[in-house]
Structures are given as structure tokens and as C-alpha cells.
Amino acid sequence: MGFDNIIGHEKQKSLLLSFLEKERLPHAFLFAGQDGIGKKRTAIEFTKYIFCAKSAGCGKCIPCLKVERGVHPDLLFVEGENSIGIEQSRMISKEIYEYPYESNKRVIIIDRADTMTHEATNALLKTLEEPPPFNVFFLITASERSIPLTVRSRCTRMAFSPLTKDNLKQYFLELHKMDGGKAQLFSQISCGSIGCGLFWMEENNLLLRRTLVELVTGKNRSFLDTTIISEKVSKNSKDVSIYLSFLLSFFRDMFLVSNHKDTAMIINRDVRELLEGEVVDLKWIDTSIRSIQEAIHTMRYNVNKWLVFENLLLQIMR
Ligand SMILES: [Zn+2]
Q1: What is the pLDDT of residues 265-281, one digit of tens each?
Q2: Interval between CA 58 and ligand 1 midpoint (Å)
Q3: Which residue, 23, 99, 187, 230, could crosslink 310 as a Cys pair with Cβ 3.0–4.6 Å?
Q4: How many structural domains compose the chain?
Q5: How many degrees, rounded to 5, is the angle at CA 146 between CA 122 and CA 8?
Q6: pTM given for the model
């Protein structure tokens, strides 16, 4: 129930509850930290505490259930497909002057707040400057610096760290009932993010990951596969960034194995046999790591992701 469902982030959870106990809830929070670590989930679970009939985030009373189903009339959830525009911002500005319907507070959760357009940000800023007292905002972002300082400075900032391997292992053991070995593997390849772990839990993604490595290490030299894989991988920016992070960590594994002969530190144990027993050219590893980092940087801009990824593969394939 309540925060018990959220793995990790102990400090953040107790700080939030202390605001509530002291009845000194800030009017706006900024939850910052990488994707997939539980920021939005924390905001939603905390909303239950705010609305709960027993003030306990019980998860069972009517207000708690309405929050969980996303139908509580005093919870406004805003998320842009690609960006949060002026329309959504105006809707917020209009709503916040109405008294809450069922609770004595209204909660506005703005997910991916960094995708707000310039106009939307300006409209929100006016709202944040003099908000009616019954509103509580949660701005959620993995890219804090993309939010103007004028907005950030009006929020109580809470930084969320990537989850530890132990946190993640606990998550996979308890919530997904994995066996110890599998939970261990997933805690390592998830890069501190539950979102990333869930991504790799999909079998197709895990298979593609292996195909990608076979291609890069020269086990498979099909140029057709290069194109097909690049297309699959670059469907959306979230997927492509997970695959790029994976490639980076795979090359780092390769560096550890060939330079230090150290297999204990390998992260990507599911493709371990593709790493071991090979004499690998350190210069190739080094230039490949650079190329991947460059591609990660380029992907931040409005580019053709498919092309960028395919070009990268052609550069780093052996
Ligand atoms: Zn409740």
C-alpha cells in the first residue's frame, strides 16, 4: 500500500510524508532524475496520501482507487504525445481556479515537463507565480535543464537517483517473481531503471539485443540485417536510447575483458559468450565507444534516427 509499492527513494518518500504531516505542502514540486526510476509512480502514490479517506494512502478507499484508475476529479494528469502545448497549459490555468470537487486539494501532475513548448511554459509560469492555495503541482522530468530556470525556481526540487542493483533485484524478485539468477541479470542490465528493465523483459527486445551484438562483433555480417535492425531499433526515441546505452555498456564490457582479463565485472552477462575468448583490438573498442557517444549526442536533435543508427552500425561493425 502507498509508498510500500515503490522500491528505493526512501529519503524522498519520508520527506514527502513529512510535508503532509506538518501540513506544509509546497505548491509545486520538481521531480528530476533519469527515466524509468519511479518519479511518476511516486507522485501518483503520494497523491493517494493527499486524497485518501484515511490519510494513509491505503490504496483501498474510494479516493485511493480513483487515483489509481486515473479518474479522480481533483487529479489532473498532463502528458504530451511529443510536447505539451498551449492548449494543455490553458486547460491547467482554467482548472486551477475552480475549487476541488471531492478533496480539499487539487493535484496536477505534468509528466515530461521538459517537453512544454515556450508558450505553454509561459502560461504555466503565470500559474505558478500566484497559484490558488489548494493546488499542488508535480513537474516530472528526466531533462531538468530543458525547463526554464524561472519555472524551476518556483518548485521544490527533489532529485531521484538511479535505483541500486539491490533495489532492482528486489523489484524483479518480488514483483515479477523471477528466480535469483534472472533477477540478478536484470538488475545489472537495467542501468538503474525499472523502465529499462521492463523493456528488456520483452522477449523481442532481448533477442534484438543479441542480434545487434552478433552484428557488431562480426558474428553476422549481413548488411541487410543492419538496415532491418536499424529500422526496428529506431521506432521511437526511448527505444533507440536504450539500445545505444546497451551498445556503450557492451563495448565497456569488451574493454574490461580484453584489457584487464576481468570477467567478474561484466554487465551484459546474457551475451557473455560473445565477449569472451577473443583477442580484441583496443583501438577498435576505443573508436567505437566514441562513435556511440557521438550518436547519443546527435539523437538529442531532430534527426533521422534510423539513418544515424545505421551509420553508427556501419562505423563500428567489425
Ligand atoms: Zn485510501
Answers
A1: 889 999 988 887 666 78
A2: 4
A3: 230
A4: 3
A5: 115
A6: 0.81
